[in-house]
Every structure is written in structure tokens, then in C-alpha cells.
Amino acid sequence: MTTDDGSTGIHGSVIGPLKSAMLSEPSEVFACGPPGMLDAVRSLCDEAQIDSWLALESPMACGFGSCFGCAVETKDGIIRLCVDGPVLAGNSLNGVSSTGRVDPK
Known about the structure:
By secondary structure, this protein is of the alpha/beta class.
């Protein structure tokens, strides 16, 4: 665990400690946090061919998939986070934008 202010865990970015942890060959990485961090984790894991699971955030107005307010684009098409997530495989994403939505690339 890392925090920007060092109040819990390691002080600073998660990327340095994650790179160190990857030396021991982890089988999976689970991450939650701001979109920029999630995108960096996703990219690092993709490069190392390690499975990642990312907890995305999005407004979920109805909570059962009818309003499509939480729709994000994946490599396989559009999904609704409230019924198909909110945790997604990192390799199913092209990227994570600053809004928490997936960048269509």
C-alpha cells in the first residue's frame, strides 16, 4: 500500500514498489485509486504480462444497468460498470482516462 502523504504504507507513487514486487513474479495485481495511477498500473502489468484487476469508478445512477450512466468502452465493446464491474481486467482496457472512463483508442 502506498499513499501520497505517507500516512499509511509507503510514501509516494505505487509504481516504484510495484516494479520491485514484480521481481518476485506476482501472478496478479489488484488496484484501486485515481485514474492516472490505474492507467500506469495497467500499462506496467501489460508490459510485464501480469494480470491486473482495476476497480474503476463511475457515477451509477440506476445501479442495475438500464440508464447506461456508467458505460465504459473496453476492447470488446461497451460495458456497464454497475452490472459488469466495477472491477475489470486491465488487459480488457485500452487505457483509463482522468474521468475514470475508459479511453476509446
